[in-house]
Amino acid sequence: MSPMFPERLHYSIANAVNGFVDWLVLHYGDAFRQFSDSLLQLVVGLENLLRLLPWWLLLAVVGALAWHASRSWRRALLLVGLLFLIGVVGLWDKLLQTCALVLVATSLSVLIGVPSGILLANKPLARRLLTPLLDIMQTLPSFVYLIPVLMLFGLGKVPAIFATLIYAIPPLIRLTELGLRELDPSVNEAAQCLGANRWQRLRHVQLPLALPTIMTGLNQTVMMALSMVVVASMIGARGLGENVLTGIQTLNVGLGVEAGLAIVALAVVIDRITQGYGLSRRAIETGQGKP
Predict the structure, then answer these.
(1) pTM, whole model, 2 decimals?
(2) Which residue, among 97, 164, 100, has the nearest Cα to 137 in the 3D structure?
């Protein structure tokens, strides 16, 4: 039976992609290694800092943030209770490792995603060029990101951070751009008439008004970063995902379910806090739109 496509029509991009990655490693391998070492020191330092703090102090900080975001003591105590249960089942150290990984990946996402969203909102050409790239980043299976970062950074926490960053940053870019583009033009014109320059309009008018939408993007980024925890454990990132992976490899259902529920509890805590800050302060104070 003849093939559907003749062999002369076959073309693969695998060799081109492999050649590009080899070129990066050959010419910029040392630079990648230095950057990897610096980022690893940051992650390990954050982990050690979290370990130095007493568990009750960390729970108190989370409770204060939850109350400040929602103005609800009941909600704050519930979220603190979820983290307390993670410690009760013996996963506190794993929780701190996962938090350090997510915090670093989220911080990098904010540093890159918010300026990128501002650029897309103000430059139509950049929006047309980068929107297809964001579509690809959100559509590609998460395992695909592991291949190039392993080639560039090896095994460990650093490639896990970059794989998480690539997977989780598109929602923040999109919603930052959406929040700025949907602002009422009359507000910007009024600020301009009052003598505000472009930077002052962005800082004091546009970003504060778009903050709820930006916080929604941040919330989605954190949730997607948490969804990469188990995948990242496959390339050497420790934390709660490591227990899930161990449960899969050893058919230990209880271990996997325990760690999975801990990830869910952490996701609920972060989701409630970021959603609370995403609401306008007026809505919270009047009792409308509580998370």
Answers:
(1) 0.83
(2) 164
